[in-house]
Every structure is written in C-alpha cells, then in structure tokens.
Amino acid sequence: MKEIEDILGKDNIMYNEPMSKHTSFKVGGPAEIFAKVDSVDKVKNILKFCKKNNIKVTVIGNGSNLLVSDEGIKGLVIKYIANEVKIDKTSGEVICSGGVLNLVLANKLLENELTGFEFASGIPGTIAGAVYMNAGAYDGEMSKVITNVKYIDIDTNEIKVLSNKELDFSYRESIFQKMNTVILEVEMKFKKGNKEEIKAKMLENKEKRASTQPQDFSNAGSTFKRGNDFITAKLIDEAGLKGYQMGGAKVSEKHAGFVVNTGNATAEDIINLIEYVKKVVYEKYGKKLETEVRIIK
How far apart are CA 235 and CA 258, in angstroms? Predict the structure, then answer.
C-alpha cells in the first residue's frame, strides 16, 4: 500500500513476510504487512491510517516469547525499533525506548556502573516485551526496576503514562496484556554498583542459562509458567514427557519446561505438543499448566 509506504518509508515495509524470520521459535506463517517503526510520530500516523481503513494492528517486540500460527497474521504487524537510551549516572534514572534490546541496556548500565538489571542481560527480548511480560530471572523482574511507562493507546491514538503501581504487575503479568497498546518508553531506576561485580553477575547468569537451558534448538524461553505449589518442569519430567516429540516439536531433554523446534517444526506441532503436555500433567497430577509464551493464532 502506497499510503503505508509514504508514512513509514518503503524500506521499512514487507509484504507477506514470514514470521518465522522474526520469532526465536523460527516458525509462523506470513504477516500480511510487516512494518518496522522507529519513532513516536510514525506510530501515531500509522495507527491513524489503520483505524481509518479498518486494518487490524498486531504489535511485537523481538519475537523471543512469541508463537505465531502457520496461518500467519492478517493486517499490519508493527515492530517498534526506536532504541534511544538516556542514563543519568548520578541519580541512576534511565529512560529507554521500547525497542531497545535487554542486553544492549544491560551493557550500557554496566558501562555506567549501575546495578539492578543483571537479571535481564540474558533475556533475548526488547524492553517493551520485558515490560509486557514482567520478564524476570534469578530473583529479579521488571516490576522491581520500573518507575513509569509511556505508551500509545491503539484504539484512541492517545499517548499516556502509567506509574509502577498502576501497571498491575504480578508473575509474568502486566496491565498491558489486557490493553491494546504500543509501549513507547520506559523509565527505570537503578543503584550505583561496582563494575567488576556487575560484570561477574552478568557472566554468572549467562553460564547458568547455558548450563540449564536448551540453547542448541530454537525456542521461546520457558514455555510454561511456574506453578503456585509445584515445579512445572519437575511434573513434566515425572510424567515421562521429557524428550517427548510431536512432528518437529520436542520437550527439551535438558529442561522439561521448554518446548523446542528440532529444526522442521510447524507452529501446529508446537501448539499440539503444548496442549498434550498440559493434558497429561492435568490427568496425572490435577495441576493446570499455563503457557508463558504468547500465542497468536
């Protein structure tokens, strides 16, 4: 569509773009229109156009916690790629565009000797995605470092700000999962730290991740949320499902909480395996597993 190209630039638009190129699972059918958007003004203008023309909008981050169906996504997929980071080394206050990768921010904080974000250095998504999921690891999570989040309401095209208390954070949950938004900017607060200690913690977390998680197959991180009164991976293992395979999808033999793509999986393979694991665990133990991965059907 020429109008979309005029708003965003022809080089930022792809038609019938395979979502397998934009998700860490490496599966997913085509996005009807895939757009990289790098500024707030462009977000506002493209949302205005989509509303006027009744075009469905789907927003993604780095695709690292995403499973897209084999049928793909109708309408426009927005990947917000603005990547500005402002750091006040003295106060520890940080303002970060939603498109910044977690590792990029972690390294910038390391350079400025600010501690509190080491937990996220190995989470392969964007800041906006981390906010959306209240991402966490190794006793840290986004809810502990965020002060405010600026976003645009897709339905009204209004820019709004919510404080930490208004974000309804809980385990892998935030208010944004109940809203239709593009997360534009995140304000965070960190403490002064020792550069060598920060670096050591980041390395320690990286080594833990490598030793406990399947990094030899494409996946979207932990497939299932942890249970309130049970260890999810332990139940899956005890149910005899570690290594269980459907098509090209497999329950990781390294960590049973991960479903992986062995190389030729379809999204349907992965979804079917997830549902099978849920069914078996419920039948054996009466425990309902919830998916951590975001599924777009």
Answer: 13
Active site residues: 172, 222, 292
Block mean pLDDT (10 aa), the chain, length 297: 91 97 97 97 97 96 96 97 96 98 97 97 95 93 98 97 97 95 98 97 94 93 93 97 98 97 97 98 97 93
d(CA 283, CA 58): 35
Q: Which domains are delineated in the chain?
A: 2-80 (3.30.43.10), 85-211 (3.30.465.10), 214-296 (3.90.78.10)
Q: Which two tokens stand for residue 252?
A: 């990781």
